[in-house]
Structures are given as structure tokens and as C-alpha cells.
Amino acid sequence: MQPFSGLALLRRGLSGQRGWTTQWRSPPPKAAYDALIVGGGGHGLGAAYYLASEHHLTNIAVLEKGWIGGGNTGRNTTIIRSNYLFDESAALYDHAVRLWERLSQVLNYNVMFSQRGVMMLAHTVHDAQVFKRHVHANRVNGVDNEWLTPEQAKAFCPLLNTGNIRYPVLGAALQRRGGTARHDAVAWGYARAADALGVDIIENCEVTGIRRNASGAVEGVETTRGTIRAPRIGVAAAGHTSVIMKMAGIELPLESYPLQALVSEPVKPVFPCVVMSNTIHAYISQSDKGELVIGAGTDAYTSYTQRGGLHITSHALEAICELFPMFRRLRMLRNWGGIVDVTPDRSPIIARTPVPGLYVNCGWGTGGFKATPGSAHVFAWTIARDEPHPLNAPFTLERFRDGQLIDEAAAAAVAH
């Protein structure tokens, strides 16, 4: 793609979109492909891209029941970090951060990755002990994380109220390499790059059934746009993964919960980083448009709805107003919800399934966006080679049978 001169760019911007081309094709589905990816979010589109770019499988289709990025990829608070506790998690999430750092250049698409730092607040002695344990474990694994005193935390984020509140700030864990990215741009960038390599991106194509042959292996899917055959199928459908996997006779250890977020009216740049609080279940950053992006904990009930209870967002806003009193007069602009799949150990599943040719990427809870490039990269490896990448080898279905859990509940920073 050739860059435009300043004058040409201005002319195109004032053209009313005349002569603009689409970012990716909209082809009809073929009768058969070498591989199918179910789910047109960041994990699915990324897997298709890496299958084509690194494993040279170009006869691939991504099937999305709605529009690209209309699921959890476009319904999150865009936080990126890798300060997880256990060795397996730290390796996987830090792999993602390293890919984030060069993703705009690789895709030739600005995903607006900003390493502004993620600060996680400790309000109790238990919080402080847990976060210090994370700091030491991360350093052993070569992942940056540091402990801040209350004074250092306020110096890093001057708007923070550390003292005269119900839960005073006793310290904080800071990962300076953490930050945010533009969620829509991630989906669009992967979609455009995959399309350029020959991947068919098929929107408004809901999977209604999974076909298996006489030996039990997958042979294709039934969709609202007809039957599509393929010997390999990767499912990365976020909150609806368990529904799709039941079509193949597989029960997954997942529970699906609504997760809400909201944004304020835009203001001038005032917030320098990402701040998260587990104890009061709220987290906040500022978007490039000036909106304060605020998230909360998951709702307490299982549901496939993309909305949640009003009391959850009210509680999060009360907490934000206590931590950052200057925001009390801001008006909220909009709120939304997504569906998160939660496993018993709060770690993902990226694995082959008992059905030959069927692979699954799910169970990310509230941590899916931050893992996008790393998750997609190892999932593509697993599909292409029919074996796990070393980084996702521990994240199998069998770990729930064998008791080899990777318990990351405390690392989520908000309630699961």
C-alpha cells in the first residue's frame, strides 16, 4: 500500500468516500476449504492471518455470524498486560505483548498500541501480599513488574486519591510495558491482512451445525449460507463457544457471564495510564478520543445477553469517583456489555479436542483482548500442525481431568 501525499490525503478525506475501496473482500462462501475459523473477532481473524502468513494455508475462510469485530473484540476496555502469576500464563501473555509491540508494522495498519503503563492498586494487606508475589514471580520469568509505594503510585498517576477513602491505597504493582490498543483497528487490521493473503472473510454466516464423517472426524459445517466442507475447523467464538462445541457433542468446562463497560463524555487528555482495582472492582483509562473508559467486574449470573445489571455499573462509577474525585461531574456517554467465558481455573483453553480436526480457543474470561496476537499465533500453529505450540501446550482440556490447573483468578484484577 503506497502512502498518500498530504494533498492527496486531504482530497480523499473531502471526497465523500467516492472512489474508496473496501478494506477486505466480501466473497460468497465456497463449497469447501482447507480450514475454517468460526468467529470473526481478533483471535479468529488473527489465527487465519497466521495460518496464511506463517503456515501457507491460503484456502481458508473465517465465518462470522454478525459483522467483523461485533463481538468481544469490539466490546472491551482494550487493556493489555502480561503480569500474570504462573509460568505458563506469563509466557503466553508476554508472547502476546511482544507481538503487540510490532503489530502495526507487521499488519501495515495502525492498531494504536500505547504502552502507557498498567497500575494495579492494593487496598488491603492481602492485596499487597498478592501483588508483591506477582512482582517477584514476573521478574523470575523476565516479565517487567514493579512495586510502588502510595507516594510513587500518586506520582505516576497524579489524579489518584490515595488516602481519604474507604479503601486507602497501600501501594501498587506497575507494568510499564502494559497499555492499550484500538480494538476496532485490531480486527480491521487482521481482516485486511488476512484478506490480502487470500483468506475469505464471510460475514452474516452463522454456524448452525458441525458435520462429522463415519470415523467421527469433522468434515464441515452447516451455516445460514449453506454447507461448507473442511477437514479442519478452529472455533474462536468467545461467549458462544460452548454453544458451537455442543454441536459436535463436546461439553466444555465453561460458564458465560455478562461483562459491562462504559465511557464518559470526551475531555482533554488528563489520564496518563491504566489504573485497575480488584478490591473495589473498577478500572479506568482514557481513549484517544478523550473518553474515560471504565470497566467493572462480571455480573453475578450466567447469561448469553450482551447487557448486565445497572447496579454493577453504578458500583463501578462510585468506586471511580472515590479514587478520582475530579471526575464526579463528568456525564456518562454510553455503556455496553459483552459475554465472557470463564473456566474453573480462570485460564484459557487453546487445544485440540477429542473430535479429530476440531480445535478450540476459548475461556479467556476478561483477559481475551490483551492476548489477541499471542493467542492467534499459537492457535494457528495448533491447527496447522495438529499439535500444540510449546506456549499453549499447558492450556489443554485434559488439565481439568488430570488436575493440572493454572489458577489465575487473582491475576484477573477484577472479579470473575
Provide key terms for this protein.
globular, alpha/beta
Description:
The chain is α/β, with parallel strands linked by helices and 416 residues long. The protein has 2 domains: 30-76 and 183-253 and 345-412, 3-Layer(bba) Sandwich (FAD/NAD(P)-binding domain), CATH 3.50.50.60; 116-179 and 255-342, D-Amino Acid Oxidase, Chain A, domain 2, CATH 3.30.9.10. It has 10 helices and 19 strands. The protein has helices at 6-13, 42-54, 87-107, 125-140, 150-156, 183-196, 241-246, 310-323, 372-385, 398-402, and strands at residues 35-38, 60-63, 79-80, 118-122, 146-148, 171-175, 179-180, 200-202, 207-212, 218-223, 226-229, 233-235, 255-264, 274-277, 282-286, 292-298, 332-342, 349-352, 358-362. Strands 5-6-4-14-15-16-13-17 form an 8-stranded mixed sheet. A hairpin with a 4-residue loop joins strand 14 and strand 15 (282-286). Helix 3 (87-107) packs across helix 9. The longest helix has 21 residues, at 87-107. The model has no long low-confidence stretch (mean pLDDT 93).
